[in-house]
Amino acid sequence: MLFAILCEDKPGALELRMETRPAHLDYLKSLGKTLKFAGPFLTEKEQTPCGSLVVIEAEDAEAAKAIADKDPYAEAGLFESVAIRPWVWAINNPES
């Protein structure tokens, strides 16, 4: 099952995000086929990162949360909030 991990950065945390980014990218790459896609949300005005969208495949919500919790961004305390929601890739799914 697919899960969308929706993360909002804490206000003023851009420096923490940038410092942690290499470890975050390495972690995402280490997920292999578990990771379907990922990328940052941007502020409208400055176009700077302010959150993340990560879509993964996991057995259940608990497994998805375990993956999300191990992300270096989460471990560094970057996020103000994290929501994990089941998701269906209905349109333009490359695996269909």
What does this entry look like structurally?
Helices cover 32% and strands 35% of the residues. It is built from three helices and four strands. It is globular.
Mean pLDDT: 97
Q: How far from one another are the termini?
A: 14 Å
Q: Residue share in helices?
A: 25-40%
Element pattern in H and E? EHEEHHE
CA-based shape: globular
According to DSSP, the number of beta strands is: 4
Radius of gyration, Cα only, in angstroms?
13 Å
Strand content: 35-45%
Report low-confidence residues grouped into runs of 5 or more: none
Number of helices: 3
Helix and strand content put the structural class at: alpha+beta
Task: Describe the main β-sheet briefly.
Answer: 4 strands, antiparallel
- Widest sheet: strand order? 2-3-1-4
Map the helices and strands:
Layout: E1 2-9, H1 14-30, E2 35-42, E3 49-57, H2 61-70, H3 72-75, E4 79-87
Give a quick set of tags describing it.
alpha+beta, single chain, four-stranded antiparallel beta sheet, 96 residues, 4 strands
In short:
With 96 residues, the protein is an alpha+beta fold.
